[in-house]
Amino acid sequence: MDAADVSQDLDHVLFTEEQIHQRLDELATQIDADYAGREPLLVGVLNGAVMTMSDLARAMHSHMQMDWMAVSSYGAATKSSGVVRILKDLSCDIRDRDVLIVEDIIDTGLTLNYLLDHLRGRGPASVEIMAMFRKPDALQVDVPVRYIGFDIPNEFVVGYGLDYAQRYRNLRDVGTLAPHVYS
Ligand code: IMP
């Protein structure tokens, strides 16, 4: 789906598919270098990180492994509460592994803060975070993010895996919604 397909629903496009891919190429180069000689386990957080994970993984030139978790935050639909429930756990043991959590977006940071703590308790060799987007003005906890795609304004965005009411995940670009969609 292109921005043109849902132009009436979008207020404006923040990042095009090309800009996202270009940034992912840069991050992949950095990750390849940082993990040289190791084989990181990329842990994608479902469902939002699906696009980021698949493009990042393909942009990398070295071996990596992939696993997935699904979590849900208790509380209102568009606000994070910091209390996280694991809906789908990892399929593999991460003891002594180099784990790189791949997340779509950091808003309050509460979800990742919980996940980071939780995964550290399983005895991995290392745990780092890669997030495609981050809203610095919305952060409530200081999450140590190693790799960040773009910092964005404190607005609700959709596309590239990010949804509103489960829609727009398949939008190639990332944009803000027009008010009539959610009001
Ligand atoms: P946090 O715990 O507040 O950092 O929330 C993170 C999660 O909330 C993300 O993984 C998304 O699923 C969701 N989220 C936060 N902001 C947005 C947004 O602007 N668009 C779509 N989903 C969002």
Shape: globular
Write out the distinct hetero groups bound to the structure: inosinic acid
- Which structural class matches the secondary elements? alpha/beta
Distance between the termini: 23 Å
The largest sheet is: 6 strands, mixed
Beta-strand content bin: 25-35%
Number of strands: 9
Low-confidence stretches: none
Q: Could you tell me the mean pLDDT?
A: 94
Can you give a write-up of this model?
This protein is α/β, with parallel strands linked by helices. The protein has four helices and nine strands; from the N terminus they run E-H-E-H-E-E-E-H-E-E-E-E-H. The chain has a six-stranded mixed sheet with strand order 4-3-2-5-6-7. Strands 1-9-8 form a three-stranded antiparallel sheet. Helix 2 links the parallel strand 2 and strand 3. Helix 1 packs across helix 2. The mean pLDDT is 94. It binds inosinic acid.
Write a compact overview of the structure shown:
The protein is built from 4 helices and 9 strands, in the order βαβαβββαββββα. It has helices spanning 17-34, 50-59, 110-120, 179-182; strands spanning 10-15, 41-46, 65-73, 84-88, 98-106, 126-134, 147-151, 157-158, 174-177.
Which helices and strands appear, and what pairs or packs with what?
Layout: E1 10-15, H1 17-34, E2 41-46, H2 50-59, E3 65-73, E4 84-88, E5 98-106, H3 110-120, E6 126-134, E7 147-151, E8 157-158, E9 174-177, H4 179-182
Parallel strand pairs: 2-3, 2-5, 5-6, 6-7
Antiparallel strand pairs: 1-9, 3-4, 8-9
Helix pairs in contact: 1-2
Residues 48, 73, 80, 103-111, 156-158, 162 line the site of inosinic acid (IMP).
